[in-house]
Give the backbone structure.
Amino acid sequence: MTAPKPPTIRALRHVGLRTTALDESVDFYTGPWGLDLVERTGTTAHLRAAGPEHHVLELHAAERNGLHHIAFAVQDPAEVDAAAEWLRSEGVTLLEEPGRTGRLGGGYAVRFLDPENRVLEISAHVHAVPGLPRDRPVPRKVAHSVLNTTDIDAATAWYTRVLGLRVSDWSEHQMVFLRAIGDHHVIAFNQAEWTAPNHVAYEVASLDAWMRSIGRLKVAGHETAWGPGRHGPGDNAFAYYIDPAGLVPEMTAEVLQIDEETWMPRVWPRTPELSDLFRTAGPPSPRVREHMGGVPDPGWA
């Protein structure tokens, strides 16, 4: 019998957020942000990007902002079953046993809790949708989610040991960037006073599409909260905004691709010239820092 082992996560599939402004947020993300509505109910909305994922963002009406769940992709249902066996061996709390979900988009999934009470999902065979033309200056996928944590070392140890993610870089001892396959990071952790979503990044196909996206948002009356610029860790172009509920989305492009054979993690000093290689954005303002900090998020109840 083969011993259980960590899953091989392929990508970040979608993020679910709790929002205090569902109607306004749907208008924002399906308007100037560039996502398309898949389905809307009185309390939830599912939105797709231009890539083949059925949806990349779920919005759930709530009395306070927070993280609803994060879904990771694996190759097939057998990998979901193997992941569930591994999670059990690690003492992880399973919220849903592996099986067909019955949720919008279908698929075969297992849901479970991380040590800070976040709901995570590992899924396969989720319905695909036809990709939209690559020349559209709109998000093609959700690139990464940054999470505030009260213990960055414990979070790093758990996500690397239990989920099999790998450390790409550190920003001193304040942030750590974790990758699956290809992209520099799919999850990052920021040391903070409480757990909360910090921001969610959406990737467009090119630097030109990124600039056009910034222009589209500006014409619609949405100025950047931080950016435009280019990060040192990840080498990605960035522009951060504040959505109608006060959550922070990032429009990004040209995320660094990792060569597993040669990559060596580094510790980046937290200096202005390395947080923004373009030197156009300046440091994040107190306002955007406050929104990235969010409100204390107890997680799953």
About this structure: The longest strand covers residues 11-19.
